[in-house]
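Lab notebook, design round three. We kept the backbone fixed and only want residue identities now. Task for the bench partner: fill in a sequence for the structure below.
Input structure tokens:
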């Protein structure tokens, strides 16, 4: 069984990782490779070859784990989709979120009417740049076409889940009720501030429903239900209530294997069953290998020692699990919670008590005994999380390492734990592999449009040199986005002007990345004592990156801060980008003489707001793609019609939605054909029948109407 599972997971990991640099699948591949060496000792036999061949064949014949098949088209007009609701809807204060079978995620703003699984609906909304999410602006955009049968098992489970949630919240409302619902049912409506505090403290894995929760439930039910059959049925019902999340499904398989072994009187070997559970989860849940929760649960389980009681055993288990999950945490979250182990040891005894109180409150929502106990225990957990998260240095920010660093660490750890060797020095090879986790990978060469809330931010990277243009507002997560792209140091930061939506995150960026140069217009040099003011005609060379400043034209500040902002042409090899900041009519017209005859990427002025000088820019230069960064409402209809009327693809960069891939330079330049933008956006040529209209030809209706 072990060779079959190992071969399947290896091939599946390679298939899921193909086409994208995501070390998650490589991590899993290295883990199962080491387990293979430990389990079968690489003894070649006909049975081994047969099992490996079967595993490879199964991995190849299964359909590709594409969560959206086919993907929704990213259009700029309304999109109409019809489909069947799948799974449980996530209810938040600002709306609901659910998924269609074989389709994208649906976000309905300002709505609390969550549809049941199996409901056929028709929705009208706007797709994101990745096509994976369709956003509906009002509840009226969702039309119910067909209701599922009331006796459908998924509907019955959803009704039971909602009944339990409502009874818990009827007894305890507010953050305590949300916390208990998240703990018992895996409800994802937990407040963002509470979730961030738990993540920064390193205790989010205690709250999110995982395999340990199912273990607590199994231990509690074992006192009441002795027969293995009914106990297995109750555990399956609880796993169904949580939505069969990957960690819970993995633990359910292990629990059923344990019950089967106990009923048959045989000893259960954890590792083969762990491999089998991982194989079953990957088959049933497409893309599970890339899920951070699945990887964290898998690595932590593999690192736990067998046996041992007492405080010392608990500390050793916590240390081993923390080191084993370190590469996954660094890769996905770019942060290391330094208080994770102490907080886990402190709160681990409280979580089973809270879990039991949650189920008791579902049975007795008005009990004068359970409600105060649940409120007190929840307040204790939230207070500890808030206090630990507010301590300076509670979280160490770490840039994403090289893709080979996580597999090397896991391979070294697995080799030290599972492979017996007479040379003890090999057991310490994991120490340099830990150091590799702190070596940043560096961003892909090109221009990265970074979501920054209501503001704008862009990263320019080439040959190891990095330039950040604007930092976004204070509430944006620009620092985390840069760390996820493997950035640890910045060479230059360019702040186009002093407005808070462009410079609000400057202090955090300076503190985290320590740039060598800070560039601002003369009117904004007060932002930092080290800032250098630049005007039109100044040139900045940052390695292979060239920045030609074409605005503002004078050192004396105009009346408006927007008119005094920096307008710059950035060249990365053959890639040319025009950054306009919040330049308006006067400032943009003053910079027109410096605009090159062709621009691959145009960052629209003032986030795409109405600008009288924009038509003059479009007439002067040929544009490959236009980018509108900021709030969705900032893009004016006139600007969208104008840009699309010229046949220019338009990309919107909005916080909470998947950012576009980086705009990468090409080795060879062609004035007639360019594919520097994502999705191979093509700049129209003079001989193209679908070319943009020439000067004076007026506007044409964009696709889909205006």
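Proposed sequence:
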């Amino acid at each position: 069984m072990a060779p079959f599972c190992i071969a399947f997971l290896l091939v599946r990991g390679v298939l899921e990782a193909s086409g994208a640099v995501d070390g998650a699948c490589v991590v899993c591949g290295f883990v199962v490779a080491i387990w293979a060496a430990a389990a079968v000792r690489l003894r070649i036999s006909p049975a081994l070859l047969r099992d490996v061949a079967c595993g490879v064949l199964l991995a190849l014949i299964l359909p590709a784990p594409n969560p959206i098949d086919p993907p929704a088209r990213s259009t700029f007009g309304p999109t109409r989709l019809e489909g069947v609701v799948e799974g449980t809807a996530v209810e938040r204060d600002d709306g609901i979120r659910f998924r269609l079978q074989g389709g994208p995620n649906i976000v309905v703003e300002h709505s609390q009417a969550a549809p049941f699984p199996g409901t056929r609906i028709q929705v009208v909304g706007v797709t994101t740049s990745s096509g994976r999410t369709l956003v509906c602006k009002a509840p009226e955009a969702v039309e119910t076409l067909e209701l599922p049968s009331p006796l459908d098992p998924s509907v019955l489970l959803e009704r039971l889940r909602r009944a339990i949630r409502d009874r818990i919240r009827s007894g305890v409302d507010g953050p305590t009720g949300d916390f208990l619902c998240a703990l018992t049912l895996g409800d994802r409506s937990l407040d963002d501030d509470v979730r961030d505090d738990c993540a920064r403290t390193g205790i989010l894995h205690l709250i999110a429903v995982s395999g340990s929760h199912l273990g607590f439930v199994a231990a509690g039910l074992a006192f009441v239900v002795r027969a293995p059959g009914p106990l297995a049925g109750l555990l399956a019902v609880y796993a169904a209530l949580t939505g069969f999340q990957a960690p819970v499904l993995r633990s359910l398989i292990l629990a059923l294997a344990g019950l089967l072994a106990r009923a048959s009187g045989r000893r259960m070997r954890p590792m083969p069953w762990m491999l089998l559970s991982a194989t079953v989860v990957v088959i049933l849940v497409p893309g599970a290998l890339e899920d951070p929760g699945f990887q964290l649960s898998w690595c932590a389980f593999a690192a736990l020692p067998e046996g041992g009681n007492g405080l010392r055993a608990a500390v050793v288990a916590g240390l081993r699990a923390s080191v084993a999950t370190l590469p996954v945490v660094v890769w996905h979250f770019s942060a290391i919670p330094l208080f994770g182990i102490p907080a886990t040891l402190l709160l681990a005894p409280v979580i089973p008590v809270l879990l039991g109180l949650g189920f008791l409150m579902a049975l007795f929502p008005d009990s004068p005994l359970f409600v105060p106990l649940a409120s007190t225990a929840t307040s204790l957990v939230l207070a500890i999380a808030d206090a630990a998260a507010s301590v300076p240095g509670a979280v160490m920010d770490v840039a994403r390492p090289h893709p080979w660093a996580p597999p090397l660490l896991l391979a070294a750890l697995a080799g030290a734990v599972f492979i017996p060797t007479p040379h003890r020095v090999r057991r310490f090879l994991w120490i340099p592999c830990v150091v590799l986790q702190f070596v940043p990978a560096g961003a892909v060469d090109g221009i990265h449009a970074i979501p920054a809330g209501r503001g704008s931010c862009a990263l320019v990277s080439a040959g190891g040199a990095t330039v950040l243009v604007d930092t976004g507002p204070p509430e944006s997560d620009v620092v985390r986005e840069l760390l996820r792209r493997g950035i640890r140091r910045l060479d230059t930061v360019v702040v186009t002007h002093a407005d808070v939506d462009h410079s609000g995150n400057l202090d955090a960026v300076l503190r985290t990345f320590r740039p060598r140069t800070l560039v601002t217009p003369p009117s904004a040099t007060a932002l930092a004592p080290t800032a250098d003011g630049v005007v039109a005609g100044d040139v900045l060379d940052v390695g292979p990156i060239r920045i030609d400043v074409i605005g503002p034209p004078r050192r004396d500040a105009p009346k408006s801060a927007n008119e005094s902002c920096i307008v710059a042409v950035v060249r990365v090899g053959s890639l040319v980008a025009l950054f306009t900041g919040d330049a308006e009519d006067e400032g943009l017209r003053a910079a027109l003489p410096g605009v090159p005859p062709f621009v691959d990427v145009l960052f629209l002025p003032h986030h795409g707001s109405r600008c009288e000088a924009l038509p003059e820019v479009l007439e002067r230069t040929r544009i490959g793609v236009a980018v509108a960064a900021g709030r969705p409402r900032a893009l004016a209809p006139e600007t969208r019609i104008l840009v699309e009327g010229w046949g220019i693809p338009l990309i919107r960069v909005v916080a909470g939605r998947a950012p576009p891939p980086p705009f990468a330079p090409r080795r060879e330049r062609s004035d007639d054909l360019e594919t520097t933008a994502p999705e191979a956006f093509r700049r129209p040529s003079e001989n193209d029948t679908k070319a943009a209209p020439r000067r004076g030809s007026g506007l044409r209706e964009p696709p889909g109407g205006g």
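Keep this in mind before ordering anything: The first helix runs from residue 2 to 17.
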